[in-house]
Amino acid sequence: MSGLSETSPWLRFYGDTPKTLDYPAGTLYEAVARTARRVPDDIAWEFQGRRSTYREFLDEIDRAARAFSTMGLKAHDRILISMPTSPPGIIAFYAANRLGAAAALIHPLSTTPEITHYLDATGARIAVVLDAFYGAMAAATPNVPLSTLIVARIPDYLPPLLRFGFWLTHGRKIAKIPADPRVRFWASLVGRGDGPATSPAPISTTDEDPAAILFSGGTTGEPKGIVLSNRNFIAESMQVVAWGGIHKGDAMLAILPLFHGFGLGVCVNAVLMAGGTSILVPVFNAQGVARLLRTRKPTVMVGVPTLYEALARDPSLHKADLSCLRACFSGADTLPRPVKERFEQLVARNGGRVRLLEGYGLTEAVSAIMATPLNEYREGSIGLPFPDTRAMICTTGTVLEATAGHEGEICVSGPAVMLGYLDDPAATAEALRTHADGRVWLHTGDLGRMDEDGFFYFTGRLKRMIKSSGFNVYPAQVEAVLYQNPLVAEACVVGVPDEAQVERVKACVVLKAPALANRETEEALIAWCRERLIKWSCPREVEFLAELPKTRIGKIDYRALVAAHAAKHPEKRANA
User: Fold this and answer.
1) pTM of this prediction exceeds 0.70
2) Domains in the chain, ordered, with CATH?
């Protein structure tokens, strides 16, 4: 921290938040075990009416670790976890960490080609998957085949009445798992403790060893595996806890998914380190979250703008008591002012006194690294850097700091910054650069500015990326899929304004046979993408053009397509 106060004007707005923190050495498993020893009988998580104390939670983690060890998982291996926000997902994550293995977490709706890519990238031979999505996982054809497929079921963690209700509404629609020698069932391995009775041998994993691999865009806009250490998660979680004043007895809705840095790092790990309760939400819908707000009374919420917009419009909350809410933060996308105002007005009408505060983060630093302080608000600001986090605006394309008020690239340095990109030293070297001060700085690929008081403002992106409902969409990935279709001659994917999603994905396509430019072909191309991409990456509309605009050096000019869409739809205004 030497010299930090001299270069960080934001520290005077910290209030009661400590300027530096004492980060313990060790692993994430050890951090959760410390909490379990401190508050063994407090509730660690809730899920669909079922609760687990910290003592019970740690016991299940240990049982899962014993089972994984028997399957051959050991220190420095990788395991693939393809689960919604649910008990098996978080238990598997900490159990892998108990063994010193790194968990690669992916969206449970990933397609078979995507799963094959993830398995090849990580070398994982063991995977945890929900029964409803077994088919896509089982069909994957990685270079190194899966040896074990652990299948979990939502009813494994439901009370009896809800278990029956789940079967009536969803369970009977799930295909029966066929005979597959790779399959082991989660309930028999962990729930009933059928694993070995002895604990795995002690490991020598350190806080600098990898804990997780999350897939995101990187500074070039191409999907990459981001390798995050134990220290990264512990530091980021402690910073969030200090900033939000999260304590024993607090409860947070874990709405964001486990494969998302916010979901895993903030909604789960930060809460568990504080000794609070993580209320696990496997599928987001406004009605379900509204019901939890009414019945479970969480004290803290972290979500994306579309979540708060949906809640503000939900009629079931118009008369609900919302005095339980103490802090609400929005991240992962720009927070439109009307959304902020509508949600704050809803809470105020129903007994609460919270402001919806904006933050900023990226997976390359686990998740949140800045947020608006509870006691100071600046219009349009993404807030101040967290304790022990340095931030600066660099003149674009350089490592030179820009003067206050000038736009440039947002760069950060601190204990939450990633180890690097998975098996990609060139991209790592481009993102992590050593400046003249001797520190390693993460060049985020995002544009912003800082005012004289140290408040930061997000202004745009250097990398080409679309934010749809808070999730990253990489146009190059979608375009590559479209180019595989035999009808497509040229394709360009852009993000256009959308009231519900902030941005929606639009494909501009030149067909090899222009006469086929019709609604049937549009639907066929969208279906083509849905078979090969995550749902939110798929185009919502396709516009057929005779040719695509080009820059002076012959590249497709995606900015011109965005401008053309805006000219056709002047009533739609893009968010800053």
Assistant:
1) yes
2) 466-568 (3.30.300.30)
